[in-house]
Amino acid sequence: MALIPYFLVGGIFGAVLYEAEAISWFRIQEMFRFEAFQMYGIIGSAVLVAAASLAIIRWMRLRDATGAAVGLPPKTLGRGVRYIVGGAMFGVGWALTGACPGPMAALVGAGLPVMIVAVVSALVGTWTYGYLRPRLPH
Predict the structure, then answer these.
(1) How far apart are CA 62 and CA 138, in angstroms?
(2) What distance in Å separates the CA atoms of residue 85 and residue 137, rounded to the nearest whole number?
(3) If you placed Cys at 14, which of 65, 83, 106, 113 could pair as Cys (CB 3.0 to 4.6 Å)?
(4) Residues 2, 21: Cα–Cα separation, whole Å
């Protein structure tokens, strides 16, 4: 029962992605070919909403259920190799599947069962990273 609100919000998020055509492979190709602004507008809107949300969280000094402050810890860039490698892996996965993680679930819900392979692959990749993380240079 505690997960029902998350399923509802996830369902609404998927419906918004579907209606905005953010899950369309053709829209993604238009973006990468610089033929349309739609996907850049969606991504830019998401960045603005996230930035505003984090500013409000910081301003209100919100805390989680354990009493710890909610927010993002400061990042150290270092040489940036891990960001370049991680971004390249994300980009290759996006190019191969035609979707990033959020739209993958929406595509399954929209009736494209082949995307189940992509969702399972993303979960296996996430699990593998979690397993190998203690052994990786950070």
Answers:
(1) 29
(2) 13
(3) 106
(4) 30
Q: What is the dihedral of CA 112, 117, 123, 125, to 10 degrees?
A: -140
Model confidence pTM above 0.70: no
How crowded is the C-beta side of 17, counted as CA atoms within 13 Å? 25
Rounded Cα distance, 6 and 46, in Å: 19
Whether the Cβ atoms of residue 135 and residue 117 lie closer than 8 Å to each other = no
- Listed residue (91, 88, 56) closest to 71, CA to CA: 56
Question: In tens digits, what is the pLDDT along the chain, a chain of 138 residues?
Answer: 788 999 999 889 888 888 888 888 788 888 888 898 998 998 899 999 999 999 999 899 888 888 888 888 887 777 888 888 888 988 888 878 878 777 888 888 888 888 899 899 889 988 998 999 999 876
Residue length of the chain: 138
Would you state the structure tokens that stand for residue 83, as one six-digit string? 């960001």
